[in-house]
Design goal:
This protein has 275 residues and is an alpha/beta fold. It contains 11 helices and 10 strands. Strands 1-2-3-4-5-7-10 form a 7-stranded mixed sheet, with helices on both faces. Strands 6-8-9 form a 3-stranded mixed sheet. Helix 2 packs parallel to helix 3. The two termini are 29 Å apart. About 5% of the residues have low confidence. The structure holds ligand LMJFFPRB.
Length: 275
């Protein structure tokens, strides 16, 4: 549905290709140089290893295509992204868990530091890793009023890695992030707008895409070099810890995921989702 809307809107796409297995659809508007990356992994766009690898490789492709901006959104009704695939946490194979963790670290760094401006059009619920994807973009437009967004990891009995937390601090500030993270709070669209977790709230996805394009149009007269240097200077403090501590972060996640207490919490959470 969303795909059709975007195509109708411009009619100028030079490139409309499906990534492997169609979990991701990417389009590039030739005239504006704007790419749209649409997540389409039913039922909830949960991030497993294969999906993360696709997102990472598509970001590299966009870098090579020298696009001028990107919109990240979802083709699913009511869901932007449900975060990491929780079934991957339950009795995990340590080798696969390590691979997912590393791929997620790299995907986040690639998204957070893109050389082009990015907008998340949040057209559905966006918990945990979904919220992280949105927070990593340069700008967030959320469809309201019925969706929710936030880092809810404590509600699962797990700990959001430091780089998730730092990313949230960079968006909403230390105090609000601390309350938000420790309580695992999910915010409605209006609440998210109020605390600055999203930049705009709109009633429907058409409006959201328009707002996203309007934001990206701001960069038509900005030198890509000046944009990228400024973004790197702003974002460097947030990424540096992870760049310096990838192995430490990985060890922490694997060790905590394997602990019986965490496994028990995840089992209970999964059961509650199934209900
Ligand atoms: C993977 C290991 C990697 C380690 C590397 C990094 C280190 C990270 C450490 C910790 C960080 C974690 C970050 C996370 O992202 S944890 C994930 C947290 N996500 C959630 O809590 C979302 C839970 N889901 C929901 O709240 C709701 O499903 C929804 C998204 C609001 C949608 O609600 P709706 O009513 O429309 O749909 P259902 O609830 O009926 O769900 C439909 C089916 O989808 C299944 N589901 C939902 N979310 C997930 C998920 N995140 N992973 C896997 N599966 C999910 C749900 O169980 C239903 O399945 P069913 O049809 O079989 O019953």
């Amino acid at each position: 549905m969303l795909r059709r809307y975007i195509l109708n809107k411009t009619n100028t796409f030079i490139n409309y290709r499906y990534a492997s297995q169609s979990m991701l659809q990417s389009t590039i508007d030739d005239k504006l140089g704007i790419a749209t990356l649409v997540m389409n992994k039913p039922p909830v766009n949960s991030l497993n290893l294969e999906f993360l690898e696709e997102i990472k490789s598509q970001l590299t492709q966009f870098k090579n295509d020298k696009i001028r901006g990107m919109i990240l959104t979802s083709d699913l009704q009511k869901i932007f992204c449900a975060g990491l695939d929780i079934t991957e946490f339950s009795n995990p194979n340590p080798e696969r868990l390590s691979k997912i963790c590393t791929t997620f670290q790299d995907t986040w760094l690639a998204l957070y530091l893109t050389q082009f401006p990015t907008v998340a059009v949040i057209n559905g619920h966006s918990p945990a890793g979904g919220c992280l994807l949105a927070m990593s973009c340069d700008y967030r437009v959320m469809v309201g009023p019925n969706y929710t967004i936030g880092l809810n990891e404590t509600k699962l009995g797990i700990v959001a890695p430091k780089w998730f937390q730092d990313c949230m601090v960079a968006v909403i500030g230390q105090r609000k992030a601390e309350v938000s993270l420790t309580t695992g709070k999910m915010y409605t669209t209006d609440q998210a707008l109020q605390i600055g977790l999203v930049d705009e709230s709109v009633p429907d996805v058409d409006n959201a895409i328009n707002k996203g394009i309007q934001f990206l149009n701001n960069f038509q007269k900005i030198s890509p070099w000046a944009y990228k240097m400024t973004k790197d200077i702003r974002r460097q403090p947030t990424v540096q810890w992870l760049i310096d501590n990838k192995q430490k972060d990985l060890d922490f996640v694997v060790k905590s995921m394997m602990s019986p207490n965490v496994q028990k919490s995840i089992g209970l959470y999964l059961q509650s989702l199934k209900k």
